[in-house]
Amino acid sequence: MSSAESHQEQLSQSDPSPSPNSCSSFELLDMDAGSLYEPVSPYWFYCKIIDSKETWIPFNSEDSQQLEEAYGSGKDCNGRVVPTDGGRYDVHLGERMRYAVYWDELASEVRRCTWFYKGDKDNKYVPYSESFSQVLEETYMLAVTLDEWKKKLESPNREIIILHNPKLMVHYQPVAGSDEWGSTPTEQGRPRTVKRGVENISVDIHCGNRKLWNVLGFLLKIPFFFFFVRDLQRITLPSINRLRHFTNDTILDVFFYNSPTYCQTIVDTVASEMNRIYTLFLQRNPDFKGGVSIAGHSLGSLILFDILTNQKESLGDMDSEKDAPNIVMDEGDTLTLEEGLKKLQLSEFFNIFEKEKVDKEALAFCTDKDLQEMGIPLGPRKKILNYFRTRKNSTGINRPTLQPASGVTISDIPKESGFCSKTDATGNGDYLDVGIGQVSVKYPRLIYKPEIFFAFGSPIGMFLTVRGLKRIDPNYKFPTCKGFFNIYHPFDPVAYRIEPMVVPGVEFEPMLIPHHKGRKRMHLELREGLTRMSMDLKNNLLGSLRMAWKSFTRAPYPALQASETTEETEAESESSSEKLSDVNTEETPVAVKEEVPPINVGMLNGGQRIDYVLQEKPIESFNEYLFALQSHLCYWESEDTVLLVLKEIYQTQGIFLDQPLQ
């Protein structure tokens, strides 16, 4: 007897699975199904690597149907491309591969699936290969038609599949270390369930694409430090691994953005990618007539903020400015560098600039330290820098100014825009150094005007403060973007508010983003209820103590007439009511908060509120430090955030949701 024959005989004699002839529930099955055979309905899946493990995910029903129609069209599949996921991914049918359209992502395998088996470590089903699924289907068809079951098949991986009956099919994996005589029954391991057709497995299948063709959203989450990861890993300490990776992935890109070496590259890369994606989208959707909304996370939001701040209101001026210098002098400024120095009575320094090949435009980028290294004394340095910065800033085009004696070039918002102000040490009011700490760069132009800018977990407020901005003028708004939402988790260590910079003299809470199911989370309502209850008890107790104390300390007046007593009682009652009202006013901020009129937070978001805070989950409220790092990354999977974003985008198209913000 050969090894293979012995192996088959052992499987036949010692199959641990229930027999269709045994006294079991399978006797209740209708075995007269020969005439009821129907071909299996295929469904399309793609493979994605999640936590270093392959996971098969079904396409939505619309995409799967399109893929099946393309497969069954009779045309050659080679070179056939089917857009899926709302056009974000293309499936190359002949290759059976799925490619991202707008960003870099590893290609994933695609499979036309009909037969599945349950995975090893979880309850998710894994599809068989298309070729072996066809073998299984042919075997199943014969078994149903001839009513001959207990069929055994061996997969290309030497796995054994046994078809006992239409409702009982099992899968055995090969056991490592089996000898030449084959596996014993105890070595076959635990049988796995085999299912035919996607309708018989537990899997979430979405109905179809939710196409927002009237809007387009860019979710900008670019790892700006990707050029330097290898260098950082080489010098990163091995301790507190998670925290150090968070630092490398989230915080260190801030230093790269503030570096004169990399800042211009980062800004150019971001703007170029945004324009590329938009152009590609229009090529793939030529009938698109909608608007664009953009979103930035962490430092990405700051970069977007800087880019949007430095856009031109008129897109028609872009072509003429494409090759223009970054620094544009005011229209009446026709003075050369030599003439300017002569006007300042500093002509003796012209030869120095001429020797260093510094013209008027190059001088605008020079720092105090640069001029010092040229041998120019402190007094003339200040006059030169102040004069040429004044001439340059009068246009309201660009930002670079100097922090005196620091040697650091900075970049900020035009003084004329009304965005910010800063007071010098002598109290002389606004002056030209409106920002500190930012390197001087040339901000590229976007080829579209965004409708809304969403900032997730954003440090914009902190950076503006560090740059020296005291406040944001209520009348300021982005030149090309109408809306701005600063969305953050309450425990996010990187996020900062914006509204206090617009209204610095008023303390008020951010807007609370409602739960996607339409209410506050229960633990927040419970917390507010307990707070309100404690305040009521406190106020009632204080009122009772005041009345008792007055009654105890009041002198007796037996000779008073009844009318006088009545008047005094009424007066005391009114006085007590007024005092109690004062106490309530002081002690119950909740009541006061409800009566406060709407707060004017300026035009940065078209007159609407800017700061929006998520509701923390109940488990997160137990230890905010424990969930701080995780909260900075929560926005991409937050249903509450997605609901707010969709709500605001739809409103730009005149579609309003019923759910109000808290």
TrEMBL record:
Concerning its family, UniProt says: Belongs to the PA-PLA1 family.
Q: Which CDD domains match?
A: SAM_sec23ip-like (cd09516)
Q: What is this protein called?
A: Phospholipase DDHD2
Which Gene Ontology molecular function entries are recorded, alphabetically? metal ion binding; phospholipase activity; triacylglycerol lipase activity
Q: Where is the composition biased (Polar residues)?
A: 1-11
| Compositional bias annotation for Low complexity | 12-23
Q: Where is the composition biased (Acidic residues)?
A: 565-575
Task: Note one Pfam family from the annotation.
Answer: WWE_3
Record gene name: DDHD2
* SMART domains membership: DDHD, SAM
Q: Where is the WWE domain?
A: 30-112
One Gene Ontology term, aspect cellular component: COPII-coated ER to Golgi transport vesicle
Q: Where is the DDHD domain?
A: 446-651
| Region of interest (Disordered), ranges | 1-23, 560-590
The source's domain of life comes to Eukaryota
Among InterPro entries, the record links this protein to: DDHD_dom, PA-PLA1, SAM, SAM/pointed_sf, WWE_dom, WWE_SEC23-DDH2
Q: Which organism is it from?
A: Leptonychotes weddellii (Weddell seal)
